[in-house]
Design a protein that fits this description.
Distance between the termini: 103 Å
Radius of gyration: 29 Å
Strand content: 15-25%
Structural class: alpha+beta
Helix content: 10-25%
Number of strands: 9
Strand order of the largest sheet: 1-2-3-4-5-6-7-8-9
Largest sheet: 9 strands, mixed, barrel
Shape: globular
CATH class of the largest domain: Mainly Beta
Number of helices: 3
CATH superfamily of the largest domain: Calycin beta-barrel core domain
Order of helices and strands: HHEHEEEEEEEE
CATH architecture of the largest domain: Beta Barrel
Amino acid sequence: MTYLSFVRVAVVLMLGASAMAHAQAPSSQPRETAARAALQTAADKSRVAIEAERSRPRLSGIWRLAAPVTQLRTIEGKAPVLTPAGQKQLRGQTDPADRCLPPGTPRLMFTDAPFLLTQAPVKVTLFSQHRHVVRHVFLDGPLKLDADADPTWEGYSSGRWEGDTLVIDTAGFNGQQWIHASGLPQSPAMKITERLRLVNANTLEDVLHIEDAAYYRSAFTTRVLFKRQPPGTELPEEECSEKLLEYPLREYAPPR
């Protein structure tokens, strides 16, 4: 066989092998089609969410308590009724805030400090001046909490819109904070449902339904109002660590 004939045979064999491999290889066409379909589905969902958001009331802005909440009362004007275990907790606790611990939910909402509320199609976020706490509310409600979720100070929040009202379900607490500065306790089993709505352009209402059978004889509902702050309002830095020089690290504090 001449060299030229050998080359021709080799080329034919290579082309034949390539054709067989191409015929046997799975086509990428179905994968590409599925990927394009998934992207289109995501785009359609985003478009629907954005259009729906445009028709909703604008809760965004900087808000602050309309009046200090010195005592927590139900909407009937009564004090929440504690169980014996709750009464024991009320008498036996020292304020966690004195140790610069996070205020937790719902105590943060009863704290007289401004907070910035931002609103997006899939999430509402509250940035508080107090201890620089951030609450994340994903609009994927109602809340579905994993059984093995780590308990936290603020809990896990999930929101949904019911007409002009933003409904927020929160659970998954560590039970180490008070629900109010008056000392009312909370247990890890506490569940909260908040209903936020604009009373008018400059007033935000938060109606809180609190369930905690470990420490309260029955669920109760309370209400708090916030006033919109003027444009240009800032959330200045807030320092808490100086408290630790007095409590609980008094014996370790440097001399003055």
